[in-house]
Amino acid sequence: MEHSVFFKAEDLSDKDKERIKNYFKIKRKSGGGECSDVEKVAENCYKISFLQKEDQERVLLRDHEVLLQNQNFHISLSPRATTERGEQALSSDKDVERMKEFVKFEPYLLHYLNDSPKATNDLKVQLSCLCSSFQVLPEQEKIVAFQAAGGPGCSWPTFEKWVMQVEHVIGALNQKYCCHFEVDPERLKIMQQNPTLFSEDLILYNVEVGFAVVVGQLDEVMNLLDAVDQMGQNMHVRKDCDVSKSQYALVQEDFEKDASFEYPHVKVSRDSTETLILEGPEKEVHLASKKLLEKVSNIRRKKIQLQETILEFLVTSGNVHTYEVRFQQSLRCPVMLDIGPDLTLSSTSPQSLDEAAAALERDLKTKTVMLNRAEVESPEMDKLRKALNDALQQANRGGTKVEMTFLAGDASSLVSLVGFSKEVDSLNQLLLDYQFNQAEMSDFVLLPSPAMVDHFSRILQLVTLNCSGLKVAAVKCPSPRVEFSGPRQLVQDFRMALNTAIGGLTCTKWKVEGPGSPLYFQHEGKDKIALLENNHNVVISPDLNQQDRCCRQTGRSSTTPTSSSPIPAQQQIHQNKPDLQVVLGGLEDQKVEVLVSPMLNTELHSTAIGKALAAKGGDPFQQNFKCSKGGAGDLHPGDVLEVDGTVAMGCRKVFFIQCLPWDLRGSGEQALRAGLARVLDLCVHQSWSSVAFAVMGPGIALRTPVREASRILAEEIGAFGHAGTTGSLSTIRVVVPPSYGDSKEIFQGVSSCLSSQILDRSGRAVFRSLTTDLDDVVLHVGGVQLILVFGDITNETTDAVVNSTNFTNFTTGVCKDILTVAGSEVQKNLESAQVTRGTVHMTQSGSFPCRAIMHVCGERDAGVIQGLARDVVLLCERNRYQSVAIPAICAGQGGVDPRVVANAILGGVRAATSGQTVRHVTTVRLVLFQINVFQQFKAEAQSTVGSTPTPLRLSRSSSQRLQDQPPSITPDLSSLLRPASSAEESVTFTLIGLSAIDVSLACGELHQAYTTQCTTYTMTQEAMSKLHEPEVTQLSSRMQDLGIRIEEPSQNGDMVVSGLRNGVNEVIQLVQVALARAVREFEQRDLYGNVVWCLLGDRGDWERFPKEANQTLEQGRSSSEVMDGQGRRWNVDLKKMTASAVGSVRPYKLKRLENLSDFTLPLYWDALERGESLQLIALLQSTAEYGKIKGDFKRTAKDKTVMKIERVQNVHLRRAYEVKKRQLEDKNSDTVGAGEKTLYHGTTAQACRCIQENGFNRRFAGQNATLYGEGTYFAVNASYSANPTYSRPGDDGTQLMFVARVLTGVCTAGQSDMKVLPPISSQQPQLTFDSAVDNEQNPNMYVVFHDIQAYPDYLIWFK
């Protein structure tokens, strides 16, 4: 640091020095900057040095105060140090300033010194001669001059002398440069508009608006002002001229040509008000203005008288400008058009005006055409409008050439055309052509006979009239006549010719009588009529409507046949058969016409179903319920309340059944049955096509046991179908809410009960189909059949079965059941296995009915599950397994979302089958045990793999309908006989010809043509009686279609059939078939009671074949097709005892049962050997029968594993049981009937054989207590009977339990001392209760006191 300053102070402390240093470091306070420490250089003299010289100079110019010891200390700086005696001190700075002087200066000149390098350098040169320098301080409006020391050739004058020298230099500078303050607006404007007048030595400072300063050397400033004044003298002037735009356009070309030579600096423009403005030098502007006005004064004008419509056309079409451009190009001088009341032309040339006026009068035209009312209303008017519009668009391409206007009036309409003559003439020609050639008029001529209307076209040919160019139509209303329209001249000519032709015709009526005469001339006789018309030149018109009039007189219905097809043998009227559906969901969400709900005490909200319907329907439905309730009066149990549905509910009606809570007396069941029957009858009588039922009863309001509710609903639906009066009802739906705790049991119970109602006892279909939401879903993935099955995987018999386990716990869930059946060896294998994550561990199957068991752990990971599914399929393929059963891995106890599991398994199967050919695996069964899992798997499969194939529906062919209704023994033949008083069938003809002879000949040949087609035949009344009643009904309704009549029997009983030959022959053939059938039916009925042929259906139920198929199978005609009760056709293989549906290769089992003379074997039994009375049949796990028994057992005995199930077939026990059942049905026919239930009875190995052979024995009562009487005890739930107290385990832990059919009838509460059941009422002591229960409201135990009241149906072996 070399730039020092000095100041005086007394004994500064280090702290004071530090504060002084900090003060000078802050430029904002002191003006200083980076500096050294404060240093003492002499007594009371201190020094501080700055890094930059500029910092030193700034601090020397200011006075300074620093706060030291709580007092302001004034510091006076000097560029050199002095002692107290005034002596000069030594300085460390070699270039310390000696003197300085402050000179007040003009501010703008100070700015100029900063901005002008020339002025700055000038001052610097002047001061350098004085060994001085300077610094400009614009803020203080000063210049500081410094005298430096130590310079070569510099001396140190006195301060006063140096100041005088500096002031002289500054004075000379002020004389050389001046500041000129300018306020004249004109000068300011010129200066601002001409920046090139200034330079770095001549600078303009704009201080504010209206004021500026020019700084520079004096002579340059004066020269600038002279130049500005000279420029001001040469400034342009502006002049407004009263010349319109159109006027200027007329003279523009000439004016601008002259101006370019004479007034080159004049500019022409227009302001916002369209005023013409001339700008430029004043002299040129004055001369240009004079010249312009002179030319404008030469403009001439001419008015033309044109129609107002033409003037309007010119304005709206934009053609004013078009003409102006055209005239400018084609005429000597431009012509402008101005449209007011008249058209005014303007131009500087009279000749151009005349030529323009002639062109306008020649080019423009208007035309008006009047159309009368008939022309406007003519059908051709639309074509005219289209043609005019098309021509208008074509003419106006590129610009509007013509305009057209329609003016409609009451009597006529006007078409106005305006525009260019050529285009107006073109459109006018279209209108004239329309009026002359296309506009229509209408007229008519009366006809003497309505028959002429139907054959008018033939009459025109007959009289050779030409009607081309006309529209001709013969009509019967308001009177028989011919209406025609067309061009006026053609219409008038045709009317005259038609009147003449009709007057020369002969018209005659002719009648042909006899059975079938209308039918003959309506069909085969048509050709004969056409032949006669050609031969005799006549028109023949039969009055076939006379047939209907004749039928109304005789009271016989009439039909109009489309052909003379024969009556099929055994044909009867088609009877509708409804579809049965069991679905999951809420009743309120069903889209059917009728919903059925229970209620108590006529209250809408008395049941959960009613509450759901009220919420769905909202206030409108609740109001409907109140209105229906108010108008229904008192409702008794079993009555039905009809309530209108609402749009929100999606149904037309809601039927509420007045119910009672369940009781053992049967009143609740009786009310429910009556209500269900009443609902179905209402559906028929009110012609509803669809109805949905809730399963009524299992809730807390009605307390009906699940099995009873399912059974009652299914039986009433079945009884309705068996009655054969289903009307138009096509869909009967049963709805099971999936959220119920016992939904699975309800669903399976309803489905099973309805399945047993599909066929009647003779094997005929009562309903068309039964479908459920839990039916198997069959899909195809990569050539493999993928089947979604709702069921238990332990019932599967596929080649491989997949067991889902965690490889640590083998005592719970499905894993426990599989290993229990498989045996201990398989479980030991698993316990010792070391299984890597995501791999399949395969073991032997042990006792499980498959070839291998594949154990997997899904790890609750979708990726692992997908890999396992893929590996399972590939492992089956390598081992040549054809089928595999896979559970919902991790979707149950694993807790994984079923849709995620479904997607993973489907993806795994797809991955295994898509990239390679699968030769061995044909079937993958996904076995799903829970309803919600099955539903979500089904939804996922349908969205990812494809839509579910439609389940097999039970359809029927026309021939099957013939078997649906048994024949009547003595049919009523009276409907076939024609009463003696009835009128004969006849046809009346209208004949029209050119001569009377032609008409007469045609009449005779018409009668002869009919008689040649007739015949008669005589047959006995006994032969006719072999017809079935439906055939008699059908024949009676078709006699007129066949063209026959049957006379009343003669004294010897013969009946005569007469009429058309084909009809008589069909009746003969029908009777012959009936005679042959009578013999065949006798044989079939006799065989049907002794031998039963049946087929194992899709749902695991045995379905009996009808009589005809039964006879075919018994006769061993295996090559023939047979038809079952649902109308399906089957190919049978009696050697293999299988059948496959026509068009399918899937085999179904056949079975033949031979009934005993006094006992009919149940269909689900196997055949018995002759003389055999007891047979124990072990059920296969793959059968639906096994699955149902096991499923019912596992519903409550969840921790038990079924080892084996045997069916007990004891003829003697079952015969006695059926007798007792019929007895109780007769006794309790008005209430609960026999009350047959499926119950459970635990037993021991010692007792089971005795029960199988001899039945249940109440004499053993008391072995396990007699709390409710000394009878045989049966439990509602299998879990109760599975108690070791009742099902005592054997040495190996195996327990036994019977599934029994029990006739409970009317029940009462049991008592421990009860040996016989008490009477139902004291008035009838002979009528006793049929069974006892532990709880009358919700029984869990039934006790019967007659051994034959229970039958041991199945024996379950379990652990």
UniProtKB/TrEMBL annotation:
<dbReference type="Pfam" id="PF01661">
    <property type="entry name" value="Macro"/>
</dbReference>
<dbReference type="GO" id="GO:0010629">
    <property type="term" value="P:negative regulation of gene expression"/>
</dbReference>
<dbReference type="InterPro" id="IPR004170">
    <property type="entry name" value="WWE_dom"/>
</dbReference>
<comment type="similarity">
    <text>Belongs to the ARTD/PARP family.</text>
</comment>
<feature type="domain" description="Macro">
    <location>
        <begin position="773"/>
        <end position="945"/>
    </location>
</feature>
<feature type="domain" description="WWE">
    <location>
        <begin position="1078"/>
        <end position="1152"/>
    </location>
</feature>
<dbReference type="GO" id="GO:1990404">
    <property type="term" value="F:NAD+-protein mono-ADP-ribosyltransferase activity"/>
</dbReference>
<dbReference type="InterPro" id="IPR037197">
    <property type="entry name" value="WWE_dom_sf"/>
</dbReference>
<dbReference type="InterPro" id="IPR052056">
    <property type="entry name" value="Mono-ARTD/PARP"/>
</dbReference>
<dbReference type="GO" id="GO:0005737">
    <property type="term" value="C:cytoplasm"/>
</dbReference>
<protein>
    <recommendedName>
        <fullName>Poly [ADP-ribose] polymerase</fullName>
        <ecNumber>2.4.2.-</ecNumber>
    </recommendedName>
</protein>
<dbReference type="GO" id="GO:0003714">
    <property type="term" value="F:transcription corepressor activity"/>
</dbReference>
<keyword id="KW-0520">NAD</keyword>
<dbReference type="InterPro" id="IPR012677">
    <property type="entry name" value="Nucleotide-bd_a/b_plait_sf"/>
</dbReference>
<keyword id="KW-0328">Glycosyltransferase</keyword>
<dbReference type="GO" id="GO:0005634">
    <property type="term" value="C:nucleus"/>
</dbReference>
<feature type="region of interest" description="Disordered">
    <location>
        <begin position="549"/>
        <end position="575"/>
    </location>
</feature>
<feature type="compositionally biased region" description="Low complexity">
    <location>
        <begin position="951"/>
        <end position="967"/>
    </location>
</feature>
<keyword id="KW-0539">Nucleus</keyword>
<dbReference type="InterPro" id="IPR057051">
    <property type="entry name" value="PARP14_RPM_1"/>
</dbReference>
<keyword id="KW-0808">Transferase</keyword>
<dbReference type="GO" id="GO:0070212">
    <property type="term" value="P:protein poly-ADP-ribosylation"/>
</dbReference>
<feature type="region of interest" description="Disordered">
    <location>
        <begin position="945"/>
        <end position="977"/>
    </location>
</feature>
<dbReference type="InterPro" id="IPR043472">
    <property type="entry name" value="Macro_dom-like"/>
</dbReference>
<dbReference type="InterPro" id="IPR012317">
    <property type="entry name" value="Poly(ADP-ribose)pol_cat_dom"/>
</dbReference>
<feature type="domain" description="PARP catalytic">
    <location>
        <begin position="1161"/>
        <end position="1359"/>
    </location>
</feature>
<dbReference type="Pfam" id="PF00644">
    <property type="entry name" value="PARP"/>
</dbReference>
<dbReference type="InterPro" id="IPR002589">
    <property type="entry name" value="Macro_dom"/>
</dbReference>
<dbReference type="Pfam" id="PF23222">
    <property type="entry name" value="RRM_PARP14_1"/>
</dbReference>
<feature type="compositionally biased region" description="Low complexity">
    <location>
        <begin position="557"/>
        <end position="568"/>
    </location>
</feature>
<dbReference type="GO" id="GO:0003950">
    <property type="term" value="F:NAD+ poly-ADP-ribosyltransferase activity"/>
</dbReference>
